[in-house]
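Q: I'm teaching a short session on how sequence maps to structure, and I want students to see two examples side by side rather than one. Could you give me a first protein with its sequence written out and its structure tokens following it? Keep the formatting plain so it prints cleanly on a handout.
A: Of course. Example one:
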Amino acid sequence: MKPLVVIPARGGSKGIPRKNIKPFLGRPLIHYSIDVARRLVADNRIILSTDDEEIADVARQTGLPVPYMRPSSLATDTASSRDVVLNAMGWADSRCIAYDCVLLLQPTSPLREVGDVERCLAHYTPEVDMVVSVVPAASNPYYNCFETDLSGFLRISKGDGLYTRRQDCPPAWEINGAVYVINPVSIREMPLGAFPRRVPVEMPHERSVDLDTPCDWVVAETIARLRDESR
């Protein structure tokens, strides 16, 4: 397998300003995803996708070359992950870098381990659109996830609402944002959300924190410290 690794790191983050280069346990956040990527592929197969020269320079501190810069048109709040990946693929194609899948590693998952990525890669085949890391959902649509009907009353999101124990319900999953293994043909044809053939690979809760808010940051650093102390 020949993955093309894309690490998206735009400069305009709002929930946690400058989060991609903010120190996480003393190291810039972006370094954790770069470390994982470099344990899987050679540097020329890693594309750091950023519009920000400071982020690029911080990434280069690891020794990773950063020859590609994301166009400013893809650095807005409305730019889609698909467009970002397609642009990186086009850059790789123009340099004759061969690949058979795209491995998207978001910097906001610093607790992700190499083994998590390897398990996702092992489940990928050209017959699927995407392999994606998941975690058991906090709310199950058969049990404790509700919607309002036309009268404004709550109704169960899925099923008849007769389950009395959560463990009896069909499992529900959340995409945790840590690992995406994407079929290049599929992403050229349709958005990620339209993929009909998505294969889940479960990750544990303790490695599934996605950094979106300052509270997430505190939780993730606490987990990382406890993990390091136990080793």
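Q: Perfect. Now a second example for contrast.
A: Example two:
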Amino acid sequence: MTQYGFYFDQNRCIGCHTCSVACKDWYDIPAGLINWRRVELVERGTFPDLFVAYTSTACNHCGIPPCMKACPEKAISKRESDGIVVVDREKCLGNKECNMRCLNACPWKAPQFGPEEGAKMQKCNLCLERLEQGKAPICVEACPMYALDAGPLELLREKYRDISKGIDIPGFKKFYPSLLLKKKQK
């Protein structure tokens, strides 16, 4: 099976949020809490030994998706053709009925729910409709610093090398996120 995923270069990301805004615009997601792609500031250390970087995250389309296992209605599935994790919003019980089990199971908080009662789960689908047209996901296309890429992991590994070995991220070795991450150099 081919597994699609993301490549992210933390050295190139300047925290402009263009990827996140492009995603919201493309999918007509209203301003507010729901963000299928998020940009977060990472700060560590104390002066004068500081580390500051940005991380752009979305659904990692895991090899073993914890959200899928947690869903009581089997509304979340992993496509056999490309490994992309998708949600059937018609089957989803909503944020109140299932107590957001998928969100609580995901170490990266990729599943998103609106604040309204009964809101259905939604998340990044790697821009399936764009991939089917031979285009890159909108976040990748929009990134002015070329910090993001997406596609079959095998091709991403050839292009960027398997730079994720030794990455210490919670859940990395348990759920096998489809993510190649180039960490920022100090």
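Q: What should students look for in example two?
A: Point them to this: The longest strand covers residues 38-46. Also worth mentioning: The helical segments are 18-26, 66-70, 101-105, 128-132, 138-142, 153-160, 172-175.
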